[in-house]
Amino acid sequence: MPEKILDMKDLVKTYIMGDEEQVVLKGINLEINRGDFVSVLGPSGSGKTTLMNIIGCLDVPTSGAYHLSGELIRDLPESALSHIRNREIGFIFQQFQLLPRLSAQKNVELPLIYAGVPEKERHERSAAILERVGLGEKMKNRPNQLSGGQQQRVAIARALVTEPTILLADEPTGALDQKTGHQIMDLFHELYLEGKTIIMITHDEDVAKNGSRIVRIIDGNLSEGVYNV
Amino acid sequence: MFKESIKMALENLVSNKMRSFLTMLGIIIGVGSVIALITIVSGATSTVTDQVASMGANTVTIQIQGTPLKQGLTQGDVNKISEIKNITGVSPTISGITAVASNDNSMEEISLQGKNDVYFKNTEDVISSGRIISPIDLENKSRVALIGTDIVDELYAGKSPLGQEIKIGGITYTVIGVLAESDSFASSDTNSSVMIPYTTAMGVVGAKYINSMTVFIDDEAMAVATTQEIEANLKKAFNGNTDGYNIVNMQSILDTIDSMTSILSMMLGGIASISLVVGGIGIMNMMLVSVTERTSEIGLRKALGAEPKQIQMQFLIESVVLSIIGGIIGFIIGVVLAYVVAMIIGTGFTLKASSVILAVGFSAGIGIVFGFTPARKASRLNPIDALRSI
Fold first, then answer.
1. DSSP calls for B326-384
2. B314: nearest CA partner in chain A
3. What is the pLDDT of residues A77-95, one digit of tens each?
4. What part of B 88-127 touches A (C-beta under 8 Å)?
5. What residues of B are in contact with residue A44 (Cβ under 8 Å)?
6. Domain locations along chain A
7. What's the topology of domain A35-61+82-227?
């Protein structure tokens, strides 16, 4: 019996743009089990970024229900959403979003600081996870001393270090060349095989095929696509 | 978290060295000038009050202007005053200008002061050699004199004048002592003065009355009460006419100096603290720029789980660290400046512990006050918008 960790029912998100009400998500139903590698595929303007923001608890739905690890995500105080993000979500961004002044290791430690993990444990955990993504030798390097692929590995390590429920990746290969992109997708595949739950947002059909499941989002509606098992 | 914030703040300041320095400059100048002014004024104040106190905080000076009916005090009036409780002695002073001469040389425009034994007993380091005026000298109106070092140099070519003869206003006296050399800060220059028994002096200058005297009190705490009693005595002597005399209590001079200089230092400090406000605005400006520049960093931190209050704390710590470092540098510069000025103008240099607290406290306060708005702005950024602004 697979464990359901993400459950969306009739999820609607509306934005008020001046006088106009714009419905970006038009009743999304989505269930994700632990260990799934789900690609959310859609062109720009389809609402996939909004969906990602809601999954990542950066935004809350206008109506409908979103349960993450059994908890109803609604219009909570920002500090409460911060805690949920810290605990449940590991973000991986297209532009890596590393802090340029900090070393790779310090970057990886950031979410642990907000989780209140003591310094010694932070060092150990960040070192171990950087070792895991193949950057054991580069821990003291700053982002500008690393290649694009290495930077994205640091970002992945940062997402993994808190052992979140979901790895949430937004176009993780978008800023990389094809070869490096493949290497990153290989790493994702390894993480999938280790049992991590991954949600990857992309507009690229080829990249999306790396997932165990593909859901397509078009004009605010979601449809289950091909299984790539 | 707190420790991390301080570390991050320092890293951020170091990575923007030039900008951090320019921003701190306002605080450096502000704190530096406040500390320098306060320290200089307090040093000068303590020098002045020390000098006044060295003239004796336990002395009361009486000046007699006289009235048409009574032009001055008689010996009898002086004796009455000296009998008041707590008074250890009364030293009348008869002043005049005279000429002095030895066999070899002569000097004009010399200050002649008639004194008594009480003056010498109550004034420290007043003679360098010889003896002081004795009660017998006063009784006999002896022709004995103590002379200043300038006169020793001029009339006796620096040799010991003790026992030598000196002509004061044409009359021959015997030199019994040499007055101690006074420094330039002393109340009166005794180096070119001669001092003789006041009873002798009254005869020389033709004075019938005593118009100036210093009263010595044994207990400083009783100074005010004793002064009142002297006043009552004088009022009676002048038949109720208070215009005839003037009483100056050293303690009241000290109090006046103290209150004047504390107003002065508050005023100067107040003016200088305007630059602290300007410095604070500089910090606010830089922090606002910093928040704008680091919008995506703030978004990222929020996505990774930073609470708004943690973001606010981080930026607040940055501005406080910035202003405290500026405050410490400013404090050091201010102290050095005050020290140099004190050396140049020759006043004392006293560093109060309160000024350290003032400098650090003030700059921390500025960091908090002027860092609050930028920090709040940072904490309120929407993480989605913040992340998008790459």
1. HHHHHHHHHHHHHHHHHHHHT------HHHHHHHHHHHHHHHHHHHHHHHHHHHTS-HH
2. A114
3. 889 999 999 999 999 998 8
4. none
5. none
6. 35-61+82-227
7. Rossmann fold (3.40.50)
